[in-house]
Design a protein that fits this description.
With 187 residues, the protein is an all-alpha fold. The chain is built from ten helices and no strands.
Length: 187
């Protein structure tokens, strides 16, 4: 389910590349202010969503280490690039300061957890690498969680910004709790 939903959101997000008409009205001003960063975030976030789930397959890690390493490099580049783009577009988020802070914190944690995973594996600490990658992917998966929560903001479009401000936090904070639970399980 995780891989299917991640691939679905990654594929659906590519529609934004078709231009401004595909961008929902509440996001258009931010898109127009930073089109390159918006596209970078979408493409890189999509790549991270598409690649991430497969990295947790034990068979891939054991039998195809080069593939795991290559996909891991692609995942890291996508997370860091997508996260940096997110830092630029976050201040223009619908929902005002609350959304801007929520998405900025998400971007910082996404980048830092991904880089912590890289540093861990470079030190040869595979267990820490796995823990940090679970955290990183839980934050990558915020792209899916956001889209699951988005219909709540569309129930009453006059309150979109208010609900979106809550979604800016709800799309990733619960995911961290899931990552922590998984990290304790696999400890």
């Amino acid at each position: 389910m995780i891989a299917i939903s991640a691939l679905g959101v990654a594929a659906a997000s590519l529609r934004y590349l078709a231009g401004i008409d595909m961008v929902p009205p509440p996001l258009r001003l931010n898109f127009l202010d930073h089109p390159l960063m918006f596209w970078t975030h979408i493409v890189c976030g999509g790549v991270a969503l598409a690649v991430g789930p497969w990295q947790f397959l034990q068979g891939l890690r054991r039998r195809a280490r080069r593939v795991h390493k290559a996909l891991g490099g692609l995942y890291v580049a996508a997370c860091v690039s997508g996260g940096l783009a997110a830092l630029i577009i976050a201040p223009g988020s619908s929902g005002g300061l609350t959304s801007a802070i929520g998405f900025s914190v998400l971007a910082c944690l996404w980048i830092s957890s991904t880089l912590a995973a890289v540093l861990a594996v470079l030190r040869g600490d595979v267990a820490s690498h796995g823990r940090w990658m679970r955290v990183s992917f839980s934050l990558t998966f915020a792209g899916v969680t956001l889209r699951l929560l988005l219909p709540l903001a569309l129930i009453d479009v006059t309150r979109f910004s208010e609900v979106y401000a809550a979604i800016a936090w709800l799309c990733w904070v619960p995911n961290l709790f899931v990552a922590e639970a998984l990290n304790r399980r696999f400890a």
